[in-house]
Amino acid sequence: MAPTRALALLRQVRHQPTIRKAFSTVIDGPIPQSPESMTQQAFGLHEAIRANGPRNDWTKNEIDTIYNSPLMKLAFAAGTVHRRFHDPSSIQMCTLMNIKTGGCSEDCSYCAQSSRYNTGLKPTKMVTVDSVLAAARTAKENGSTRFCMGAAWRDMRGRKTNLRNIKEMVNGVRDMGMEVCVTLGMIDLDQAKQLKEAGLTAYNHNVDTSREFYPSVISTRTYDERLQTLENVRQAGLNVCTGGILGLGEKDKDHVGLIHTVATLPAHPESFPVNTLVPIKGTPLGDNAPSPFDATLRTIATARIVLPRTIIRIAAGRTTLSEEQQVLCFMAGANAIFTGEKMLTTDCNGWDEDKVMFEKWGLKPMRSFKRGAKVAEQGTQLPVFAEAGTQGEKLEVF
Predict the structure, then answer these.
(1) pTM of the complete model
(2) What is the DSSP letter of 298?
(3) Which of 83, 84, 94, 104 is catalytic?
């Protein structure tokens, strides 16, 4: 080849420049793209991870763009957001006790406690206050910092004696220095205020899925009734805990719809449980196929980006995840688990198992009330755990 031609070809070669961070580390590869040259998905993540606090004006299209981003990029972006607002090694350990089993009049298609389905579950009356306090002590001794109680019924109407006993349970658990959460079906504002006065930390009432898919799962309680209960809880000054269930037969768009419902509430919830269906024989969904892990990871990662200050809890179905899958969820933004002997009527990962996992991966239990002081309402006034991009370092995912 003639020298002049070779020189001309060399001049045409476009070498990719390197990036030098503030602390002099050289990164091989192209300079991060400008927003003008990014794809819609890349730009969606690019903008979302720069949030300084919660926003309540998310559109479904925005959330859909994030949810459907390449999974590795999505998980990394979520981890970046997570480390800005939370201690990534701190995991809230929660224990859930069923204080009244079975006999519920609702027709939730996934639930073993509905009186409409023959699941072999024997209904029981409410347990005693002493038995609840004994269970809470055991949970605390094993490292749990939040104790949750669930009762299988539609609502609290006409249950004055039960409410009085539940308030005594709440007060007793709170006196142990633990956070307390209950899920008692629909409640009105006065009942919510009574629970607040008793020392309740949070009230759980899941919306379950998207508004569009919801009628396929439940017909005895409307979506708006669920939202009204959440509003009563918020107006009473309690922390809101609300999430959903994966594996009901829904589509990815329903995961987007679920997150959109929660993200556009007047204030983001203090916690967002992500359940995967545990099929119960005898229920309409008893033969459903398992929900794939990538759907769980996408939901957790998207929720972390859209709900940056919210605690995201791996709830029902965690027993189906390997240790490595759980850790990947923690890296993508999950920071709470249910642990103990049982989770309502389904199996639960035990304390000893979780202690081994925590020790192996450098995790630690979240302290009581670490995030319990009205996270949603204080919003950006709460301290950020660790700012991304400090000392001139750029954090890019593209």
Answers:
(1) 0.84
(2) H
(3) 104
